[in-house]
From TrEMBL:
Organism: Pedobacter steynii
Family: Belongs to the SusD family.
Subcellular location per the Swiss-Prot or TrEMBL entry: Cell outer membrane
Main localization (coarse): membrane
Keywords: Cell outer membrane, Membrane, Signal
Alphabetized Pfam families for the sequence: SusD-like_3 (PF14322), SusD_RagB (PF07980)
Span of domain SusD-like N-terminal: 61-224
Keyword Cytoplasm: no
Stretches assigned to the RagB/SusD domain: 310-473
Keyword Nucleus included in the entry's annotation: no
SUPFAM superfamilies: TPR-like (SSF48452)
Lineage start: Bacteria, Pseudomonadati, Bacteroidota, Sphingobacteriia, Sphingobacteriales
Protein name (record): Starch-binding associating with outer membrane
Cellular component terms per the entry's GO annotation: cell outer membrane
Length: 474
């Protein structure tokens, strides 16, 4: 497997193939209806440190599958993009008429729980690891990845089944939905373990693996989502560095270089899902889907979104084509169709800086340099005009500026929808309705229940009544 852009030894390749055979049966490719291979065979492939590490690598492989399609539920749904001529499941997501039978809703659910199951298998056999340093790291990595998956699930679907151990295929009681509060409590616990267990850095041929810094940033984002600003600040403080320039992590001087397949994994990247073109299925398909020939070719930067960028803002050309609105962020013109090598950035230092500005804005009586300076760091890199003293003179104007900056900075990076749903509900609905009206769909209004997706009907049908539907989708 080439998830870390390295070559596997023949022995490791054999182990990986065996693990993939097991996981194809046992890790809930369909969350409920795949009967797992016997425990005896499963145990035969998690017997020692090397085999458990192969299981860890399989967790990262799961992330590839998830992030290859996440844009279908996030970027398409949000107010950055227009969706002229979108039909079928695409149009249903875009125009807030998705049903429990929507394939994209089901596909994301299944891929995410597949990855969670892989993490649970690693944790189940952790005691078979004899190297104490690796054992600690494997636990941190598995809990980081599992937390990332649950964080996305709970924001997209609300209450979800919380599986923290490998389960039997017919253990239907475990498929009941658990409150978001309990899911978030588990996230905080697991990410605290990841912060303590993941290494500060990895060798260059393993840069995709979770680190202490990535765990801190993800935990900060969880706290920020929960509006627990003091704890978010505790996680961000070590990352921002002196004068907001960063230490281990820094802004890449070139915004375009962050996304180019030839210059990835710079100091800007805290965590990315890695892809490699023409490498036996290790490439991504989202790069092609966003192109003029892809299935998402009608998902373009909306006119209101394009108008937000200042003329000199270098992010504009790196985010969309000014002529046709198509995404330009992940172009890989030399790659085969649906097999591109662009990594997908999940956590960037720009995100750290903007979270830090937001946290300080909420904690302080009024905006100070602790709010304005990290915000201006991001704008300076983009060659955008900076905020001068007095321009952001209260919490409300600063909060609006920070959310606007996030929208500009993270176009087509699946962040905008998650930002929308952590705003006050009435504000989110007002933004979405105004956007729909401005993009030619004034008859569509967004009811509150559609701020989360339906639970896939296939999974409900297979759960023997244990999995229930979100309100409004019955």
């Amino acid at each position: 497997m080439l998830i870390f852009k390295l070559k596997l030894t023949p022995m490791r390749h054999q182990i990986f193939l065996a693990l993939m055979l097991i996981l194809s049966f046992s890790s809930c490719k369909k969350f409920l209806n795949e009967q797992p291979i016997s425990n005896l065979i499963e145990q035969n492939y998690y017997r020692n440190t090397e085999e458990v590490e192969a299981g860890v690598i399989a967790c990262y492989d799961g992330l590839q599958k998830v992030y290859d399609i996440e844009f279908k539920l996030t970027e398409i749904r949000a107010d950055n993009t227009s969706g002229v001529s979108l039909e079928g499941d695409w149009g249903a997501i875009k125009f807030f008429r998705d049903a429990p039978s929507n394939f994209f809703v089901l596909d994301y659910w299944q891929r995410t729980y597949n990855t969670i199951a892989r993490c649970n298998l690693v944790l189940k056999y952790l005691d078979n690891v004899t190297d104490p340093v690796k054992k600690k790291s494997f636990e941190g990595e598995a809990k980081f990845i599992r937390s990332l998956m649950y964080f996305n699930l709970v924001r997209l679907y609300g209450d979800v089944p919380l599986l923290t151990a490998a389960i039997k295929f017919d253990d239907f009681e475990k498929f009941k939905r658990i409150s978001k509060t309990e899911v978030y409590n588990q996230l905080k616990t697991d990410l605290q373990t990841a912060v303590a267990s993941c290494p500060v850095s990895w060798p260059n041929n393993q840069l995709a693996r979770a680190t202490k810094g990535a765990s801190q940033a993800l935990l900060a984002k969880v706290y920020l989502t929960l509006k627990d600003y003091p704890n978010a600040k505790l996680q961000l403080d070590p990352l921002v560095g002196s004068n907001f320039k960063g230490n281990t992590y820094q802004l890449n001087p070139s915004y375009a270089a962050i996304f180019a397949s030839t210059s990835e994994m710079s100091k800007e990247i805290l965590f990315a899902v890695r892809y490699k073109a023409s490498a036996n299925g290790e490439g991504n398909s989202f790069s092609y889907e966003y192109s003029n020939n892809g299935d998402a070719r009608n998902v373009k930067a909306s006119a209101p979104y394009q108008a937000l960028f200042e003329t000199a803002d270098v992010r504009k050309a790196s985010t969309f084509n000014a002529t046709n609105g198509l995404c330009t962020k992940f172009l890989d013109p030399t790659a085969p169709q649906r097999d591109a090598g662009n990594d997908f950035p999940v956590l960037r230092f720009a995100d750290v800086l903007l979270m830090y500005a937001e946290v300080n804005n909420e904690l302080l009586p009024a905006p100070t340099n602790e709010v304005i300076d990290p915000l201006n760091e991001v704008r300076n890199r983009a060659s955008a005009s900076v905020y001068m003293a007095g321009m952001l003179n209260n919490k409300e104007t600063a909060r609006a500026a920070i959310f606007k900056e996030r929208k500009l900075e993270f176009g087509f990076e699946n962040q905008r929808w998650y930002d929308l749903v952590r705003m006050e509900e009435s504000n989110t609905i007002s933004i979405l309705n105004a956007y729909l009206s401005a993009t030619g769909n004034p008859a569509i209004t967004v009811p509150a229940f559609r701020l989360i997706f339906p639970i896939p009907q296939t999974e409900i049908d297979l759960s023997k009544g244990n999995l229930t539907q979100n309100t409004g989708y019955n």
